[in-house]
Amino acid sequence: MKKSINRCDIFCNVIDNYGDIGVCWRLARQLANEHGLVVRLWVDDPGSLAKLCHEADVARDIQHCRGVEVRRWYEFGNPPTLRYLGSNGDEEAIQPAELVIEAFSCKLPQGYLDAMVAQRQSVWINLEYLSAEDWVHGCHGLPSPHPSLPLTKYFFFPGFTKQTGGLLLERDLFARRDAFQADAAAQQAFWQSFGMEMPGAETLKVSLFGYENDALAGLFDACAEGSQPVLCLVPEGRILPQVRKYFGDVAPYAGSSYVCGNLRVHVLPFVEQERYDELLWACDINFVRGEDSCVRAQWAAKPFVWHIYPQRDGVHMQKLRAFVARYCAGLPPEAAQALHGLWEAWNGEVSSIPVEKAWNDFHAHRSMLRQCAQGWARELAENNLALNLLDFSRKIGRMRAFEIEGQ
Ligand code: TRH
Q1: Which of 45, 292, 304, 306 to mutate to test ligand 1, by most ligand atoms within 8 A of the CB atom?
Q2: Looking at ligand 1, which residue's alpha carbon is closest to its atom 15?
Q3: Are residues 180 and 138 in the same domain?
Q4: Are 196 and 320 in a shared domain?
Q5: Which of 218, 328, 329, 373 has the fewest CB atoms within 10 Å, i.e. the most exposed one?
Q6: Is 319 a pocket residue for ligand 1 (Cβ < 6 Å)?
């Protein structure tokens, strides 16, 4: 067993949307570019990556993008094995890396597991979903022995406390964010790249990334009737049919603009991950969804509204409330109530107050919510997932090397 970790394989099975690949792509770049690891990202749907990184070529099985080797993950043979034709046309057997990350419990190919057994060199991590619930503390870092092979994988939970693995945060993110926000020309260029003039200070800028949502019409009504002009930027995605329904228009596309009272809605193209951060930084309030955009909104340090990924049994509302409880702990009760009200209404909670009222309350408390967002981001930044993951993996690697030497 090698004691150092120089190579990393990340396996990503895209279930739906962009969160699975969004997290894996971010982690892959961070491990490669900030920590000098040789990273292979195995993804079964390179098309989803191409949305986040436009230079990724969907047709290629192997390619290098932004310091990461991206490989199409497909398996064949019995046992299912990852195999590729090398540049000389010969079949290339895959050597497992020292650090193996399966994202969100995706199932590693049997042939790859066998190679891990033969090599005895890999630390195997299951990177879990993000949750603010307390039970995560007891599960973070736990080993899970394979039922039949001499392999152990370890659960690694992202989270919001020191008893978890922390959150993905690039080393220079805050510096880039602050530089962007202090640079009028950079902001001007940002708006112009979407064919828009930079909105004046009197306009409230809102980004809106969400799933299908029955509360949208109420939110738009409230903005249209409000006293402050609102510019709402909607990236192309699942919520567009409802935008269309609200304005009774033909299908919206990137560049479509609609006006109703004090509300102007502008549809944006789906941009690369780095530019999505700029959108969050450029806006005053951000509506986000899933997992990764929610974390990015926290780093943007602006008031935000989370449309959590809906789960059939309703457990998502427990996750949502666990987060609200942590996030609002330092807020005055009225501001906490305003946040809670809009988040419940936006997530379709039946007992919630009408979204129009919830929006007006949230809007009224935005200055306090902004202060809270800034403090929250500073506090959370202390707990960096990539650093924690590497420390943890090295510790497991040393422990295993010691065990193997003793055999
Ligand atoms: O897309 P999401 O809803 O993804 C997920 C998946 O549904 C997943 O299966 C589920 O488990 C998880 O949510 C909780 O939301 P998320 O996680 O915010 O991912 C969106 C990614 O897309 C994120 O990395 C930000 C990025 N993005 C861009 O790069 N450009 C854009 O224009 C937009 C709107 C988003």
Answers
A1: 292
A2: 290
A3: no
A4: yes
A5: 329
A6: no
Strands 204-208 and 230-235: parallel
Distance between CA atoms of residues 110 and 166, nearest Å: 30
What is the DSSP track for 212-271? Answer: S-TTHHHHHHHHHHSSS-EEEEEESSTTHHHHHHHHT-SPP-TT-EEEETTEEEEEEPPP
259 shares a domain with 159: no
What is the spatial distance between Cα 70 and Cα 152, in angstroms, rounded to a whole number?
26
Residues 191 and 297 in one domain: yes
17 CB near ligand 1 (under 6 Å): yes
Q: Which of 8-12, 92-96, 106-110, 328-332 has the lowest mean pLDDT?
A: 92-96
Q: Record the tokens describing residue 55, joined without a space.
A: 């230079």
Probe residue for ligand 1, chosen from 13, 14, 17, 212 as the CB with the greatest number of ligand atoms within 8 Å: 17
Q: Whose CA is nearest to atom 26 of ligand 1?
A: 273
Residues 92 and 34 in one domain: yes
* Domain match, 197 and 345 both: yes
Please indicate, yes or no, whether the overall pTM of this predicted structure exceeds 0.85.
yes
pLDDT of residue 250: 74
Looking at the domain assignment, is residue 2 inside a domain?
Answer: no
Which structural domain, as residue segments, surrounds residue 31? 7-168+383-405
Of 98, 128, 221, 291, the active-site residue reads: 291
Q: pLDDT of 156-206, one tens digit each?
A: 999 999 999 999 999 999 999 999 999 999 999 999 999 999 999 999 999
